[in-house]
Predict the structure of SCD domain-containing protein.
Amino acid sequence: MDDDAPLASEITTRHSKRARVHALDGGDEPSKANGNDRENQERSSDGSDRSPNPGEREGSPDDFEEIRPKTKRPRPAEGTSDVPNRSEERLIEVIKGNGKHISQAVKQWVERYEKNPKPAMVELLMMLFEACGAKYYIREEYLDEADVDDVVVALVNLARKGEIEDYQGSKKKEFKNFKENLVSFWDTLVIECQNGPLFDKDLFDKCMDYIIALSCTPPRVYRLIASLMGLQLVTSFISVAKRLAVQRDTTQRQLNAERKKRVDGPRVESLNNRLSATHEQKLVIDEMMRKIFTGLFVHRYRDVDPNIRMSCIQSLGVWILSYPTLFLQDLYLKYLGWTLNDKSAGVRKAAVLALQNLYEVEDNVPTLSLFTERFSYRMIELADDVDVSVAVCAIGLVKQLLRHQLIPDDDLGPLYDLLIDDPPEIRRAIGELVYDHLIAQKFNSSQPGPKGNESEIHLGRMLQILREFSTDPILSIYVIDDVWEYMKAMKDWKCIISMLLDENPLIELTDEDATNLTRLLFASVRKAVGERIVPASDNRKQYFSKAQKEAIENNRRDLTIAMMKNYPLLLRKFMADKAKISSLVEIIVYMNLELYSLKRQEQNFRTTLLLIKDAFFKHGEKDALRSCVKAIKFCSTESRGELQDFARNKLKELEDELLDKLKSATKEVIDGEDEYSLLVNLKRLYELQLSRPISIDKLYGDSITILHSFRNLDDEVVSFLLLNMYLDVAWSLHSIINSETVSEGSLSSLLSKRDTLLEELEYFLNAPPEVGEGSKSGNQLACRVCTILADVWCLFRKTNFSSTKLERLGYCPDVSILQKFWTLCEKQLKISDDTEDDDVNKEYIEETNRDTVMIAAAKLIASDTIPKDYLAPEIISHFVMHGAGIAEIVKSLITVLRKKDDNVSEIFLEALKRAYHRHLELSRSDDEFIKSESFQECKNLAARLAGIFVGAARNKHRPEILKIVKEGIGYAFEDTPRHLSFLEASVLHFASRLPAPDIRDILKDVQKRTENVNAEEDPSGWRPYNTFYESLLEKCAKNEGIQDEKEWTTTRQRGRPRKRQNIEGRRLFNEHGSSDEEDSINTLDQEDAQVEGDEEDDNAPLIHSLKSASKLRSLRVSRQEN
């Protein structure tokens, strides 16, 4: 970059001299260290990559003590202060400590510097080097002649030898405050020197030279610590510059006041001198900041270490904010804009936070206009960043831009899509933005404030947003959940109720708005009492603090008081509206029913309950029925006294009335009339039976009669007949299991019901309903048959009742029934869940999809209801055939099987055979695409199953893998060449996971099987065998080649691998070549690459390829000889 030129010029034109520098780890005497001074007086820049000779370094810390003798002092007695001796403590020890004595140590050092600069300068540089982790000493008499490049190259050599210590990255407790103390030291030093040494053009110039040079070296620890010190120097310089600016302005005002007196006296001259000196000092301090910026920042902001990049950006944000007169310009702002694209989330977040702070200050906004125009699109893009924390911060930044009206509303479209994003943190942040910008309209200063009820206005604006999601209630719930925390109007129950009842409306509601407002009310009620309205990703149980529980109870109380008198009015108004009634009815579940008695509102409770009962018989949709059942059951259990008796009586009346309606509807069907009434009342019974047992013995018999007599009934009617029969059997079993005494009559009755139900279900196995893409109702009936059968078998599995008095209840289907069951399941699996038919009622669709069918089948195996020999391989053979949902179910089943029985090789092999058998059946087709697709499915299945045996499991389960391979080979050679493709499709994936000796044995085995076979008679049929053989040959050769290479490496190298030396002293500080240096800057930070895994052939070293090739050739030769 052009910014690099000044520093590069300064460094490269410096006279290079042989540094008289001494490392503390040498072994020479001080007298020998001097050597021939004239001989080493000058050096050329070409020799800068050489470290100083050992004779030029001071030997040890002991030698250092001889050069600078210290008076030994006794250990202070316990309880006495060591403050008088603090001046003798080394600076690095002060920084390593707890930081309490930094200020005192700095003051004492400044005093020493003012008395005798050179020893103090050496002491400070020693601390600087030791902070980077290197023990290195520059002799006092050669301080002025020491060349920065030579010293830094010597320090880099110490790092290459591993003779440094990383205090910053150390886990030791004593270094936990090292970073804070180091920053504090330099800040205190700058402040202490601001009236003297700071401007002597020697002390800080030399420090900055070393810091800048160290920040450009390959060792990461040097760059990290040097960057930390350099960045802090600029921050500290800013505080001095601001003080000088204030002093200059004050002096200027005083001078102007004196000049108005029109008397030029000593006062004016004194003020002129002070103003000139202050201005000169400010120019110097500004130049020092620019020097560090161009020499350090412009290189380190793109360092390979994200921590260094992040520190740079954080510091730049502080500089611009605290010293805008220098840094608030595009020359510096551009770095914040560029790092919005950094690959590290931490760096992007630092840039976003820095910009947030800048936009927070009103005075900065006009200067930021050009920057905003250039980078605002990227800021909006970051709201959808892959890192959640970055996205949340970016949304906050967009809010700042909106507040200053720097971006148009049209650019915010993509942000509103994030209202339904997965991470809740992003949704909440977007929700806050939507509330501030669209609902409360805090950023729109041009419009006057709202007139009238603020809650009603806010709710009206929220309804405008919800109109965009009216067709999808789930998306509406997401939006409500996002905004709820910020929008108080959502908890203004009285306002919402008033709007629904059209009491003095400020806003005229359409039917769509009323539906959305009802959804909003119900969702807000649930949120107010602590319930989740959007599923959580972790599914963890919620825990509330005492304050939160009190707030929830207060919300429940306020809701109940607001609803008591208005609840009947709302139910009457929307009784016939199926889109609204379910939400309104269920609200009572979240109310405090005791308040009805305390507030003397018993009549309103009775009226509400009667209206809910009417709604139950007025509607036949799942949501409305389920809400009514839930509400009435809640009232019958949670109310108290007379109100509870009333609720229970109404529940009993509801059951009796429903059974009467069912009898009447059954008679109508038997008489040949319409089935609609029977279907609706069966749905009502089903929803009621899901929550409580109901005696339907007479209805059970009628259901059997209808099923036997009317085989042409609508599939949905049949489904609900079977469901209600199953629920009755389940409740009867539950009653018997929980009874202390069981009568023979109840047991016989249950067995009779179960057997009758199984007969009806098995009828549909023998005469399955029409299943296909165009028969949705038939698909749903088939799904119901499969799931009910599985549930019945699980309920009555023999393991539940063995060795008990109820042993006769145990049941297990025979193999023929099981095969028919799986055949029907397979037909369901072939139907995509994405196939839609608008003519079919989808309210129970989540209970009748192919995932449900697969779960039902897998449950039979996982619960040991049936033997796993037949069904387990069939299920696993469908592992990769039907998408991610089915794959997850099969994966879970495999996990259960492996926990129960560690040896699953037989099941896996049988699953591979079943999948291959399906491929052979499809291979009879002339469609090449179908054949290749089915073959690929076999390979994918084998790859997924073999992938289970990875890492340590590969060695642990070697016998299982070997068994699959050997038996698979046997199966392939049972019918040659027809089954040989099984080797390539299935066996190869497992065989390649075996070690080389096993692979050689396998190769010998298959070679022996083909000794007397002429493969040339059918080349295409034997091609899979050749592919299998060649693949294993190559695998075996590669494994052995890598093993040989590992052994060769082990014998040659000892201990830690050496790191490649890639340091050129001449180019080390040549900033024109900084891009090359950046590419290789992490050379010393990375270990030698480890040998890659078996699968990564492309990355293998050349030596591996050569050895593998030679092994392969030798094996092929031996094969030809055989």
Notes: Residues 438-563 form one domain.
